[in-house]
Amino acid sequence: MSLHASTAAEIGRGLRAKKYSSVEVAKHFLGRIERANPGLNAFVTVTAERALADARRADERIARGHGGPLTGVPLAHKDIFCTAGILTSCGSRMLSNFVAPYDATVVERLDAAGMVLLGKTNMDEFAMGSSNETSYYGPVKNPWDTGKVPGGSSGGSAAAVASRIAPVATGTDTGGSIRQPGALTGLTGFKPTYGRVSRYGMIAFASSLDQAGVLAQSAEDAALVLGAMAGFDARDSTSVDAPVPDYAKGLERPVKGLRIGIIREFFGEGLDAGTGAAVRAAIDAFRKEGATVTELSLPNLPLSVPTYYVVAPAECSSNLSRYDGVRFGHRCKDPKDLLDLYRRSRGEGFGAEVKRRIMTGTYVLSAGYYDAYYLKAQKVRSLINADFRRAFGQVDVLMGPTAPTPAFAIGAKTDDPILMYLNDIYTIGANLAGLPAVSVPCGLVDGLPVGLQVIGPHFSEERLLATAHAWQCATDWHRRVPAAYA
Amino acid sequence: MISVKFFPLFPSGALVTLTRRDVENIAHLARLEITEAELPVYVSSLSSILAFVEQLSGAATDDVVPMAHPLEGQVQRLREDAVTESDRREYYQRNAPAVEAGLYLVPKVIE
């Protein structure tokens, strides 16, 4: 089997069995990036020298017998994670000159696990987008059809792993930004429980929703990487102080007896017929393996998107007020006074969608409108949370589609923000309630991948990973690679 | 002040339309320079976003406690008020657009 057709876990096993060295593995992937990235635009920065240095260290560690399951395995980080001494752009002109002075905790932990940094991946600007078209560095192409979007906001990470120019990559998910691109590119996209992974050094978008996770080829890879990056961090005040289970060990838990709930509201108008059929067939396969399936109604869930488009812009308008052109980031030329400095630095530094969200947030938080918009949205958020809580009183996991359609054409939805926002109609609920959720590939519709979404109660990562793993033991959708990158 | 007009087009809610002036005000509050060409685009898209989120007004939330945080019962931790970081000002200031003698430079504020 060729190196790039191997999962991260398989590469790790190959390294420990001395089938190849980490330096050989790094060179193989760097070569693939060099050939494929100009067509995909998945990477903002390729860190070739750093990768080789990391790989040499990993080889020494393995030679001493101190290698873990991820030691010497290459990865890519979404460009939202601070990497010391390396450009950390967040897909924005605002940070196109920002060299992070420190490592994010996620970066630090995966580095400590011995992973090899290939580079930083392209993304929607400040993680605001569902198609990777809002990036200052240009759109990312979907490896399954380069005329289509890879989804977003972690579109570069998704395209990199889907084209096997990186074995695995990190992502972040505020409203679906790991799961939706995972679905659109045929990957396992895992978003953990809010607070499970430290956000220290992860550039903030909407702080009550943001969470870091993984775009991987398999549930096993997601389990290994998540296990290495999760856990308490005193430097993140929302980090949860709870032990991290051995996710890889828990993968073999059987499906028999699993209580699955189908979310009725996820199969209504707007769902592409082929996608719906693939998702239903997958759920049916679980039933045949001994799971019980119940259809449930979560009546407030259809209000997820409007709730999100009050809460997320409100928090973003506050978080992004730090970009003022004074201490770091873009500064306009020849400001005539301080106000001019702020207005022009921000006006030039931010792209159209980021400005739209900052202004939406500014409006809903402004005097006289706070109660009507922000407070109202937080109350509806409570109702949505209560819907999930009731559902998890009856079932272990909820299932449905990840995205309403397969990947759409580049440019198809850029003129209509609402149409773009509706891509996240099935993913936003889990963010509002802080729940872990995973998208796993469950079929191809007209040659494009579609995803099955599995949502669980807080801290049910083990159960979700085992459910995804069971599906992948019985199917090979996750092994499909677009022909041009096989 | 920001003005908002309500048109009773939908029986379940109200349609919000922003004016040019509204968007200029919002942009000023957000310290964003918006060009002449961008203005009409934002007038239209911000209006449609506000109309879209209007559907929230139909939800019955009278006795509902607003949810500010996804994990119930989690409290913000406090730590000892002690110095835990070393002084790395010069290193951090490498990202600054203009510094002098360890200070960040901005245009003159007081004439």
Could you explain the architecture of this structure?
The complex is a heterodimer of chains A (486) and B (111). Chain A is 37% helix and 12% strand. Chain A is of the alpha/beta class. Chain A has a domain at 3-255 and 429-485: Amidase signature (AS) enzymes, CATH 3.90.1300.10. In chain A, the strands form two sheets. Chain A has an eight-stranded mixed beta sheet, with helices on both faces. A three-stranded mixed beta sheet of chain A has the order 1-3-2. In chain A, helix 2 runs antiparallel to helix 3 (48-63), helix 7 (219-229) runs antiparallel to helix 15 (461-474) and helix 9 (304-319) crosses helix 11 (352-365). Chain A is globular, with a radius of gyration of 21 Å. In chain B, the strands form two sheets. In chain B, strands 1-2 form a two-stranded antiparallel ribbon. A two-stranded antiparallel sheet of chain B has the order 3-4. In chain B, a hairpin with a 2-residue loop joins strand 3 (99-100) and strand 4 (103-104). Chain B is an alpha+beta fold. Chains A and B meet through helix 9, helix 10, helix 11, helix 12 and helix 13 of A and helix 1 and helix 2 of B.
